[in-house]
Design goal:
Length: 344
């Protein structure tokens, strides 16, 4: 296969994506990253969208094998933020100039349909911000009500496109059921986010190519490709973290294949390597999600170990000077889906 030819193709098939993910030589990787950056420029421009994330509860009903929030983990101090705490944190995010609030949690049914609705309405009444929900699988009626209340986006990663691995890591649940949720969210009108975890034991390069193609098939607006990092309190505690080059290759290949989607430089990537966000932004990413979860809660949102913690305002200044240095700028608007005609 010829790298230059593949990089200039309009559509890539699975074999060609696998080829990109298998590249090892420095000059070849540079070509891949260069092309991904070109595609990013063409479809996203130089804007980097900042989304302020509030991890409002670490209670979880699920048992995802890779995740430190899993229900059976007894070594975690659990917390729930109150509605008022969530709203005032959303205020801090918008005051810092960010125009998206991401509400993330474990799957925690303490936050009922009406409580989540209340929180959405209150944030929307008080602040001019987009809202992304990232709270796991819920009922269609709940999704519908939250959309009506004003939530704009929903993040529900497919995690792995390999259905056998999916079931093995999620208590025999079915990938097709996860995908049905994502389709339902799309149908209801949410801008939807999906994506995978890179480096799960048993996962192959072919599986990662399938992850990228699945994001394409699902026509997702945002796609997150984050490296696996072990949690000490999960059955996968002994597994080494994902390979950094493979993570960067995945982001780059995804940008080339998916084109007009938002791709974050994830917190997991910057946990794995200093300067990870900058690396991600240079190979196709166009979104950063600074964490505004207040102390003392943030230290207990331990999805994986050594998760970076920082003062969000100091961190924002660091991000801005990094963006200046690499010739990028903070997105002006809300950074809605690139697939929407009206993007504000
Ligand atoms: N409970 C919600 C969202 C919270 S978890 C949901 O299920 O959608 C957010 C994301 O963290 C997950 O989608 C998963 O991709 C990622 N994650 C969990 N454990 C991880 C680990 N050990 N390493 C890297 N990413 C992980």
């Amino acid at each position: 296969m010829n790298l230059d030819q593949i990089l200039n193709k309009e559509e890539l098939n699975k074999e060609e994506i696998v080829f990109l993910l298998s590249l090892q030589k420095k000059e070849e990787l540079e070509k891949l990253y260069f092309q991904a950056n070109e595609v990013r420029k063409e479809y996203c421009g130089d804007e980097v969208h900042l989304r302020g994330i509030i991890e409002f509860s670490n209670y979880c009903d699920q048992e995802c094998m890779y995740c430190g929030l899993r229900r059976s983990n007894k070594n975690l101090q659990r917390y729930r933020m109150t509605k008022d705490e969530i709203i005032s944190t959303a205020g801090r995010i918008t005051k810092a100039g960010l125009k998206t609030v991401v509400l993330q949690s474990g799957e925690d049914h303490f936050y009922s349909k009406s409580l989540v609705t209340d929180i959405i309405i209150s944030i929307k009444e008080k602040y001019d911000t987009a809202i992304t929900l990232s709270i796991g699988e819920r009922g269609r009626d709940e999704y519908e009500e939250w959309k009506k209340a004003g939530a704009d986006r929903y993040l529900l990663k497919h995690e792995t496109a390999n259905d056998k691995l999916y079931s093995a890591y999620h208590q025999q649940e079915m990938l097709k059921s996860r995908l049905a949720h994502i389709r339902c969210l799309k149908q209801i009108g949410f801008q939807t986010g999906s994506g995978n975890i890179i480096g799960l034991p048993g996962q192959t390069i072919e599986d990662i190519a399938d992850d990228i193609l699945l994001c394409k098939e699902m026509d997702c607006d945002m796609c997150s490709f984050s490296p696996f990092i072990p949690s000490n309190n999960s059955p996968l505690w002994k597994i080494p973290p994902a390979n950094i080059d493979l993570t960067l290759k995945t982001i780059a290949a995804a940008r080339i294949v998916l084109k007009d989607v938002h791709i974050p430089a994830t917190t997991a990537l910057s946990t794995l390597i200093d300067g990870g966000k900058e690396l991600g932004l240079k190979v196709g990413a166009n979104v950063i999600m600074p964490n505004f979860t207040p102390l003392p809660y943030r230290v207990n949102y331990q999805i994986y170990k050594n998760k970076k913690t920082y003062d969000p305002l100091v961190y924002l200044e660091e991000i801005k000077s990094m963006l200046d240095r690499i010739g990028r700028n903070v997105g002006e608007g809300k950074g809605h889906s690139l697939k929407l005609v009206i993007n504000q």
